[in-house]
Amino acid sequence: MRLRLIDPIILLSLHQEPAHGYSLMEALNKYGLVQIDISVLYRTLHQMEDMGWVTSFQEQESSQGPPRRVYHITTDGENVLAQYISDLEMRKDAMQRIIGDYQEHIKGNHTD
User: Fold this and answer.
1) ∠59-23-56 over CA atoms, to 5°?
2) CA-CA distance, 49 to 95, in Å (whole number)?
3) Residue 8 belongs to what H/E stretch?
């Protein structure tokens, strides 16, 4: 029953700015996906690269540690993100109707 939110969260984060894996994990945590393993994140990023939704490059060495891979959203990725947002809006409306109907049903069955 869980919606797959990892894809739109990653794409949204990269739409806002290019990022490396650690930053993307923080974004997933921000939206409540705290149980995601880092290997799932990188597997998803590799799949997104294969589909042409994101690109990446190895960052030059910095004083903050070893070089990191930085991910960028592509035009195709932006189009996919727009489709995800449209789908989420439709699901949100349906969920609100389901919750409202449930609450009305409970009120009708549990009057004092």
Assistant:
1) 40
2) 32
3) helix 6-16
Domain boundaries, the chain: 6-109
Query: In one letter, which amino acid is 83?
Result: Q
Pick from 49, 23, 25: which is nearest to 37 by CA?
Answer: 25
Question: Tens of pLDDT along 34-76?
Answer: 788 899 999 999 999 999 999 999 987 666 677 789 999 999 9
Q: Which helix (H) or strand (E) covers residue 55, if one does?
A: strand 54-58
Can you give 25-53 as a three-state secondary structure string?
HHHHHHCCCCCCCHHHHHHHHHHHHHHCC
Q: How far apart are CA 24 and CA 73, in angstroms?
A: 13
Question: pTM for the whole thing?
Answer: 0.80
| Contact (Cβ atoms closer than 8 angstroms) between residue 11 and residue 74 | no
d(CA 88, CA 21): 24
The domain made up of 6-109 has a fold known as Arc Repressor Mutant, subunit A (1.10.10)
